[in-house]
Amino acid sequence: MKNVLCFFLLLLYSLSGFAQQMTPYGQSDPKAKALLDALSKRYQSYHSIKAIFKLQVFTPDGKLADQKTGQAILQGNAYRIDIGGQELISDGKTTWNYSKETNEVQINNYSPDNNMISPTRLFTHFYDQDFLYRLMPDTRKNGRVYQHIEMTPFDKSKSYFRIDLTIDKAKQQIIQALIYDKSGVHYVYSIQQFIPNVKIPAQMFTFNAKAHPGVNVVDLRT
Questions:
Q1: What is the CATH number of the domain that holds 17?
Q2: Does residue 17 lie in a domain region?
Q3: With CB atoms 3.0 to 4.6 Å apart as the test, which of 10, 115, 147, 180 could cross-link to 162 if both were Cys?
Q4: Residue 6: closest CA among 95, 136, 109, 66
């Protein structure tokens, strides 16, 4: 769940790497590319983003199994994601993964090459290398128009086989991602509040051990 969570949240920060259309797996929809390019230009104009989101997990038979609200704050390679008693934090050099349940924090070196939470890892030619995408028909609800992009991964060994993005056409913002897991479980990430260009104190992107008395520190840095 952690990887698909971070995948969705970081869509809000930077959409880059849509330079190609033809891949060894086929050609992505040029209309979808045009929409993603427009989103990319918009999101990359922000120096920081704060997003309040909701995660819903549905069982294969469509029943709501879990629901949580979280917050993501993103600036450059730095981020802070809080959801369900878990804190995922990075200042661009070090990462902290804190679990409230175990009162344990794991510390790692920041690595844009293999850290699935890294904006650099996810948004440097990420989609053209890993996905085919196509534009689906618009829908309308409560007087608003929504655009939809279907994304399928090239790598069939991934735990999910499809991701559907929903974009508010007037706002030019991604408002929802529906992730289809091979187990039949569906993950729905919905943006409740989106605030660009927020002022963020530097200490937001480091782990504060004093705020977690008795925390067990596991330093995995080498």
A1: 2.50.20.10
A2: yes
A3: 180
A4: 95
